[in-house]
Amino acid sequence: MAMLKALVGVMGVLILAGLAVIAYIAAVRLTGTDAPAPSGAWSYALPAGSRVVATQVDGGRLVVRATLADGAERVVVLDLATGRVLGTVDAAMPPRP
pTM surpassing 0.70? Predict the structure, then answer.
C-alpha cells in the first residue's frame, strides 16, 4: 500500500511539472519574447541614390522599403540576428508615355 501511495505522489509531481512547462511555453509564445537578439553589428547597402521609405521589425526580421534612384520600389527582408538577406522584392514602375 505504501508503494502505491509513493507512485501516486510521483505521478502527481510529474503532472504538475508538465503543466508548468506547458504554461511557460504558452507565456513565451504569447508575449513574443523569444525573438533573437541582434548579434553584433552588420550593414546592408542600398544602391546609390536610393531612399529608405519605411522600416518595420517583425519577429526576428527587419523589413526595409526603399525607393531606388530610377523610381522603382524595393523591399528587403533582413534577419536581425545575422544581417543575412532573407528576401528581396523589386517592383519597377511602368514607363510613362
Answer: no
